[in-house]
Amino acid sequence: MRKSIYIIKIIYIIKMMWPSSQASKILTFLLIIVVIYCIYMDTFLFLRIRNYKIDIFEQSDNVTQETSTHGTLKVQQNYEDVTWIPCHINPLCHPTVKALMVDHINHYIYGPLCAIVDIGLGISEKMLFLTPNMISLFHVFIACVGAKLLTFQSLAARRVAVVLFQIRMFLDDLDGHVARERKHIKGERSEVGTIGYWVDGICDSLGVTAMMIGILVYLKNNPPRRGYKDTPVSTLPYHQLKEINSSEDIERDHTAEIGISYKTKVTLQRIVQVIGLFSGQMVLSSLAWNRYIDLYQNLLENSSEYDVSRRESTFMSGTFFFATSVWRIVNPHSYLHLLSLAVFCDKTWAFLKAVHYSGYVCLVVTVATSEYLIENIKSHVINAMDG
């Protein structure tokens, strides 16, 4: 009897968690698949780093390394020799600092897709007239079209806008892929200070700005409502009573014994405040993310004068993998993917309200962790050599 009651409760919980509409069911199923896929790839990325030779460090193919558990020597294998997926589309082949900090969607989905599109169309080798900067400028145009669609009241139009913004993010990956292929660079790298670096950054900023403006215009024209459920009128603040007395600002749901349910419009000032705080979070996240990519690259990849084994051991450590994995979630591209999902599900305002403060807390914790790790890396790699 008890077992049957538990089974009924479990079925009820599943029904409550599982959305009713068919479209929502499909979307939920796809999200579960994507999450499982990303966790699977993260696991294999960690195993790849720990067990195979890292090609960003200067060492010969015959270098041996002592293991910490058995004290025996083992030869580091090349990952390219054991993987069955070709390295030009395999996101695990060439791990770099930036590759460990790029968000999951860009690294594990858009990255391989860029390689496949490049191979199929021959962009890097045959279409030499198409420069990476031209691709960057084109995705700004797509962002402007998507921003216009975001202002529409129709949810279908806004969902098309989400698709366009995802295409924009794919093209943002493609321009970097083409640039690296033409320079014969393996793995994700940030070439700080180059013209391509600044053009890509400016175009990316313009695309994000267009998206935020589109959302602002939509919320201005279709302000969300703030509910006061089962609340007696006598307990509401004066300014809220003024809103309630205005017929265009109030929806009266029903009358109950203990009070009335009201829904008043959120003011434009509040909308601007929430979007401004979220946009500020995006800016700070982008600056910090690029800063730590540059710092980690300079300490581990670009400093050939420092001891190779110490740099490699730091790169292969679980601590470094954890610290960079946090940036996969807190970086601006992840925010954009989550915002796109919220727009697609018609939960834009709920998402912005949920993260416009809490996101800053996550960012501060991530920055503090990175600062602590930077000092440890300097102590391990640089100060050890000075001593």
Description:
With 387 residues, the chain is mainly α. 66% of the residues lie in helices and 7% in strands. It is built from 14 helices and 5 strands. It has helices at residues 2-17, 22-51, 97-101, 104-121, 132-150, 155-182, 195-221, 238-245, 268-301, 308-315, 318-330, 332-344, 348-355, 358-386; strands at residues 64-66, 73-75, 225-231, 250-256, 259-265. It has a 3-stranded antiparallel beta sheet with strand order 3-5-4, covered by helices on one side. A hairpin with a 2-residue loop joins strand 4 and strand 5 (259-265). Helix 5 runs antiparallel to helix 6, helix 5 (132-150) packs parallel to helix 7 (195-221) and helix 12 runs antiparallel to helix 13. The longest helix has 34 residues, at 268-301. The relative contact order is 0.10.
